[in-house]
Write a structure and sequence with these properties.
The chain is of the alpha/beta class. The protein has eleven helices and seven strands. A seven-stranded mixed β-sheet has the order 3-2-1-4-5-7-6, sandwiched between helices. Helix 6 links the parallel strand 2 and strand 3. Helix 1 packs across helix 8, helix 2 crosses helix 6 and helix 3 crosses helix 5. The chain is globular. The two termini are 18 Å apart. The structure holds S-adenosylmethionine. The site of S-adenosylmethionine has 24 residues, from helix 5. InterPro entries: SAM-dependent_MTases_sf, UbiE/COQ5_MeTrFase, UbiE/COQ5_MeTrFase_CS.
């Protein structure tokens, strides 16, 4: 039992450190410019790996699996159709690379991020993986995506929504560029302050009193981590986030936590609302049975 609790505490520690750097002006309010991530880009991947004990990669793969791309790909003729994926807040491109590595060549991925330094590192990784012809990275913000309406079959956002300057606008832009076919999906990995599960009080203790300090020391960027607690606190709980998705023209299909005891990141599976569904968005969300695996 003691070992299980210790393991749980370790998971909590890891989870809230991987939340990394909140991009903040004050009180956990993000500025959405990428500047703060430019500062810590060089140590970003290494820090994530160390503090997550490698779990960050598994979480991203869990998110990609929720796209159920293979079911869609089975119906696509590679000779006539290119399947397009957008990774918003791509950072150093881990999700973009993982999607490309696990799909056939007619799947192409665009990654956008406002941080030039994060993207430079991402481009090196894309080149090293031999994926330059399939993964394109460019500087942009979620609030103004440089793509035509209904361009993408799938969209991913991994630990990025919390950093959008204007969350509603950013999600609205994602809704705009997402196609409306029945298999089109958006998956979002994100962190919020834990309120459920028996480890929640311990998790909050880590967030409020331990993590900003520890993360600051490990990263050697204490200022950049100052807003960790505020940013997590400021991010809405899943039911409230579902309402924001609705306002942005999206609907939550499912939600679950990726680590046990309610301590891990949230994984949201989302689809686009078509006009006739808009009035019934909340009912659709409720009847979809949003899961919360604690
Ligand atoms: C915690 S990192 C996540 C990076 C990557 N997705 C991952 O899983 O490691 C958050 C990213 O959000 C980006 N970001 C900040 N403001 C943004 C905005 N307005 N639109 C899109 N991305 C933004 C940052 O530059 C940073 O690269």
């Amino acid at each position: 039992m003691a070992t299980a609790r210790l393991a749980g505490a370790l998971v909590l520690c890891v989870v809230f450190m991987i939340s990394t750097v909140p991009e903040a002006k004050a009180e956990g309010e993000p500025d959405g410019s990428g500047q703060m991530f430019d500062t810590i880009a060089a140590s970003y991947d290494m820090l994530n790996k160390i503090i997550s004990l490698g779990r960050d990669e598994a979480w991203r793969l869990d998110a990609i699996a929720e796209l159920h791309m293979n079911e869609f790909l089975a119906d696509v003729d590679p000779a006539v159709e290119t399947v397009r994926v957008l990774d918003v807040a791509t950072g150093t491109a881990d999700v973009a690379i993982a999607v490309a590595a696990s799909t056939p060549p007619h799947v192409v991925i665009d990654g956008i991020d406002p941080s030039i330094n994060m993207l430079d590192l991402g481009r090196e990784k894309v080149a090293a993986a031999g994926l330059r012809d399939r993964v394109t990275l460019q500087v942009a913000q979620s609030e103004m995506l440089p793509f035509e309406d209904e361009t993408f079959d799938f969209v991913t956002v991994s630990f990025g929504v919390r950093n959008f300057r204007d969350r509603l606008k950013g999600l609205g832009e994602i809704a705009r560029v997402l196609k409306r076919h029945s298999r089109a999906r958006l998956v979002i990995l994100e962190l919020s302050e834990p309120t459920d599960g028996w480890l929640a009080p311990l998790a909050r203790f880590f967030i409020h009193d331990i993590m900003p300090f520890v993360a600051g020391i490990i990263s050697n960027h204490p200022k950049e981590y100052r807003y960790l607690q505020q940013s997590l606190e400021a991010f809405p709980q899943p039911h409230k986030f579902g309402e924001i998705l609705n306002d942005a023209g999206l609907v939550m299909v499912s939600h679950r936590r990726l680590a046990p005891f309610g301590a891990g990141p949230d994984l949201f599976v989302v689809r686009k609302l078509v006009p006739m569904q808009t009035e019934n968005a909340k009912e659709a969300q409720e009847s979809a049975g949003i899961r919360d695996e604690l």
